Amino acid sequence: MKDTDAPKSKAAHYFTAQPQTASQPRRFSVSVQDVELRLTSDRGIFSHGRADPGSLLLARKMALPESGDILDLGCGYGVLGLIAAKLAPGARVTLVDINERATQLAAENVAANAVNNGEVLTGDAPEVLGDRRFDVVLCNPPIRAGKQEVLRLLAAAAERLRPGGALWLVIRTKQGAKSIIRDITPLFSNIKTVTCKRGYRVFCCQK
Length: 207
Prior knowledge:
It is a single chain. This protein is an alpha/beta fold. It has a single domain (3-13, 21-206), classed as Rossmann fold (3-Layer(aba) Sandwich), CATH 3.40.50.150. Helices cover 28% and strands 31% of the residues. It has helices at 53-61, 79-87, 100-112, 125-128, 147-160, 177-184, and strands at 26-32, 35-41, 68-73, 91-97, 118-122, 134-139, 161-172, 190-197, 200-206. α1 (53-61) runs parallel beside α2. The chain is globular.
């Protein structure tokens, strides 16, 4: 079975509203594009104890507007959203995740890093975002939740982009990056591979 087709049970450790894994907070620092962050992570959340290399690669390559609205879709404890908020202080950044433990930490990390242009929401993104629209969506998708779930989230992201907006994605090549991009191609006017490095691919998907 390919990783992109893995059943949701394999992702229960982080792609769930209320993770059952015992809490074990861990703190660490991140430095990306002259942004210094002090973060708290926990078990039951994606990439416990360190920033995921794919997220950091995306953070180094993403292009952000000086103003407007940015969405960190599936934010975890907030790495991408916090970096975006620091790099684009004139923009409004929304961080959303279904995992309640993740969003609690994301909110704590927003406060701990003095981010005043970030808002954290908890729940299934297509439901809790209402009719909000965005200029940029950032996403390191929950691959282990299964390809169907990933495609549902990316389709919802495409619907929420304003004309000319962009979805910035990072996916590991061996976890079905090419297949996922092929499936979402009809949703965008242009998709380009921005970089391939150490098994990860960063894509810019233009509305």
